[in-house]
Amino acid sequence: MKSCILCQSTESKTVFNENGIPILECQNCGHVYSSYEQEEHYEGYWDGAEQTYDLEWWDNAHRAVYSDFIKTYLKEPKGNLLDVGCGLGFFVKAVLQNKPGWTAVGYEISKQAVKFANEQNGMKTVYAGLVQDSKLPKESFDTITLWDVIEHIPKPHSLLTYLYSLLKPGGVLFLQTPNFPIQLAKANLKVKLKGMKEGVHYLEAKDHVNNYKMATLAELGKQCGFTNPEYKVLMPILSVSGSKSKLAVYIKLAYYYFTKLVFTLSFKTINWNNTLFLTLKKP
């Protein structure tokens, strides 16, 4: 990644260095990106034997945020939903179980993850491959979701433009991704407390090749034709990666309620939540 995806500027400064990989901030528009050159359609995220899937994390811990999403955004009795980068299929499953009037389709580039979704999760509407090759009918979906996907894509404009074509007029695109300013603060704190070590989660420089703030994520949507950006603060994943501590989960919940209060009192201008939850509309 030699230039900014939003404004094409090559002027940048290093804001974090993760084990020799600089993470850069555009000096023109403020977008943050990793200097690591990841392939456009990286399939290695779900590598490993199936039995190594942490279902406590991917299933149980995600149920609260999926339920919050469904209550917040899927208020109509009927509709069509597409989940892009659906992984093991648990979100598709949550929609089908909780909204019987809705259809839910998932696309995932990892054949191994789709095999789990089909055979062990019972999801018959989860398909392997690039959604851009799906030949799904234009203007057929009310809602399209990308959970922890957009940060992995080096050049996301073509994907979002394609998804724009799949949405009905008035349809909603939902993007969920780490909130970079908060993640950067956490990464700097880890370095101060423990130093820089291999295998420690900082900013995922090799996986999270684009890092978004409220302004830059909304700008990406705008550049792809979307309007009406609106942020909300949804429930967190009820687990802490690498920890089995229930206290850590309670602390995470308390932080969620605190950030939601700050977000509300600031009229949605101050977002200290760990995660960005953005909806955009197709006019």
TrEMBL record:
Please report the name of this protein according to its UniProt entry: Methyltransferase domain-containing protein
Instruction: Specify one Pfam family.
Output: Methyltransf_23
In terms of CDD domains, this protein maps to: AdoMet_MTases
SUPFAM superfamilies, alphabetized: S-adenosyl-L-methionine-dependent methyltransferases (SSF53335)
GO BP, one example? methylation
Q: Which UniProt keywords apply?
A: Methyltransferase, Transferase
Q: In the record, what terms sit under GO molecular function?
A: methyltransferase activity
